[in-house]
Amino acid sequence: MGATKLSGMQKQVLSLYRGFLRAARSKQTTEDRRRIETIVSTEFRKNSKEVDRKNFQYIEYLLRLGHKQLDQLKSPDMVSISSVKIN
Amino acid sequence: MASLSATSLSFKAPSIQSTRIYQVLRKPSSFQSISFGRFQSSKSLRLQISCAAKPETVQKVSDIVKEQLALSADTALTAESKFSALGADSLDTVEIVMALEEKFNISVEEADAQNITTIQEAADLIEDLVQKKPAA
């Protein structure tokens, strides 16, 4: 196919992203859901720009971190997340 | 929905090795269509008959894609539009597939999701899944 071949690591990242969006979907109110989606997508996009694509160790670390956060987010007790930006 | 064509014939240079031929039969809905996925001819050119996805589906998919990518309403989208050509990165593609899943109430396999690059491919896959679902 004409599509660019994705590396294994890229696939892992996309799969994690999909996992986050699915978890966001399971949250009750649309407001919470939107907030989660926005935070998650901002974070992924930020890292996709800032992280050097050859910095495998750091990406591995981020993947591990992401999976941990995703597990927390999946818990039904977790209703929403928020992010605070301090300048 | 203004003008929609029911069938489309497109010729593609060889790219995919799949020899899958599938048949889609629909109940009393508007058109009955038979689709030959992509079949291999012995020559270098491969013929693709894609009357698989109904125009409504293609239209719906286009609308969702537009919404996801925040394109203006009058952006011309065709079934052959590539997501990447519309400015979508791989994260956007994931978002599009997720939005489609929700809209059509289906679940796309991860491996399939990564192979979708055009609106036509998305629409074909959706029809395929929607067909399978009642049986499941």
From TrEMBL, chain A:
Residues 11-72 form the Complex 1 LYR protein domain. Its main location: mitochondrion. GO terms for cellular component: mitochondrial matrix. GO terms for biological process: mitochondrial respiratory chain complex II assembly. It comes from the Eukaryota. It is found in: Mitochondrion matrix. Pfam families: Complex1_LYR. Keywords: Chaperone, Mitochondrion. Belongs to the complex I LYR family. SDHAF1 subfamily. This is Uncharacterized protein LOC108851760. It comes from Raphanus sativus.
From TrEMBL, chain B:
This is Acyl carrier protein. It comes from Raphanus sativus (Radish). Residues 55-130 form the Carrier domain. One of its GO terms (cellular component) is chloroplast. Keywords: Chloroplast, Fatty acid biosynthesis, Fatty acid metabolism, Lipid biosynthesis, Lipid metabolism, Phosphopantetheine, Phosphoprotein, Plastid, Transit peptide. InterPro entries: ACP, ACP-like_sf, ACP_chloroplastic, PKS_PP-bd, PP-bd_ACP, Ppantetheine_attach_site. It is found in: Plastid, Chloroplast. SUPFAM superfamilies: ACP-like. Transmembrane segments: none annotated. PANTHER family: ACYL CARRIER PROTEIN, ACYL CARRIER PROTEIN 4, CHLOROPLASTIC. GO terms for molecular function: acyl carrier activity; phosphopantetheine binding. The keyword Chloroplast applies. The keyword Transit peptide applies. Pfam families: PP-binding (PF00550). Belongs to the acyl carrier protein (ACP) family. It comes from the Eukaryota. Carrier of the growing fatty acid chain in fatty acid biosynthesis. Pathway: Lipid metabolism; fatty acid biosynthesis.
